[in-house]
Amino acid sequence: MKTLTYSITINAGKKHVWETMIDPETYKLWVKPFSPDSQFEGDWTEGSYMLFIDPPHGGTKCLLEKVQPYDKMVGKHIALITKDGTEDSESDVAKEWYGTTETYSYVEENGKTTLTVEMQTHEKFAPMFEDCWPKALELVKGLCEK
Fold first, then answer.
1. Domains in the chain: ranges and CATH
2. 21-28: long-range contacts at Cβ-Cβ below 8 A with a sequence spacing of 24 or more?
3. What CA–CA distance (Å, rounded) separates 65 from 47?
4. Partners of 68 in the beta sheet?
5. Chain centre to alpha carbon of residue 70
6. Which distant-in-sequence residues (6+ apart) come within 8 Å of 66 by Cβ?
7. Pairing of strands 58-68, 49-54
8. Residue of 95, 105, 107 whose CA lies nearest to 66
9. pLDDT number for residue 55
10. Residue 125, burial from CB neighbour count under 10 angstroms (0-12, 13-18, 19+)
11. Taking the CB of the first residue and of the last residue of the chain, which one, N or C, has fewer CB atoms within 10 A?
12. CA distances in angstroms from 36 to 21, 75, 94, listed in the order given
């Protein structure tokens, strides 16, 4: 696994940043660099499963291992979702994807929030994240600072 870290400072409180990231409508806007029609199914509670899907392309299933609202969230990807909506944990690419983690940390100081995203992933996926995360974080910043 390779560790990738991305960070941005946003001129907004961490509660606003958190809520902007998980709101169904604004979520669709900031994740566009990863997939144009991405959406989620689930409730953002610790121990629950989230589906992150782009209907014509499939997606991923994630277990929320830690949810501390407005402070930290950790998700572990446990399966891919195929184009037809079924779970895949057996294909070679699914086995490489399995165990990818995303950790989101929110630190507020003087009304500004530093959002840090740390990914643990197979090196094969690193170029995609290196391309997409900076763009996605700029979109989060723009949405939060409106």
1. 2-144 (3.30.530.20)
2. 21/104, 21/140, 26/143
3. 6
4. 72
5. 15
6. 46, 72, 73, 74
7. antiparallel
8. 105
9. 85
10. middle
11. C
12. 16, 21, 21
Please, is 17 exposed, middle or buried when counting C-beta atoms within 10 Å of its C-beta (0-12, 13-18, 19+)?
Answer: buried
Map residue 142 onto helix, strand or coil. Answer: helix
Alpha-carbon distance of 24 to 43, in angstroms, equals 10
| Among 116, 100, 8, CA closest to 52 | 100
Question: For residue 99, is it left (φ>0), alpha (ψ between -120 and 50) or beta?
Answer: left
Tokens of 44: 């953002």
Which has the closest alpha carbon to 4: 125, 140, 93? 125
Query: What are the distances in angstroms from CA 89 to CA 65, 86, 125, 142?
Result: 19, 10, 17, 36
Pick from 144, 118, 124: which is nearest to 20 by CA?
Answer: 144
Q: How far is CA 91 from CA 41, 49, 86, 87, 94, in A?
A: 23, 20, 12, 10, 5
Q: Taking the chain (146 residues) in consecutive chunks of 10 residues, what is each chunk's mean pLDDT?
A: 97 98 97 94 97 92 98 97 92 92 98 98 95 98 96
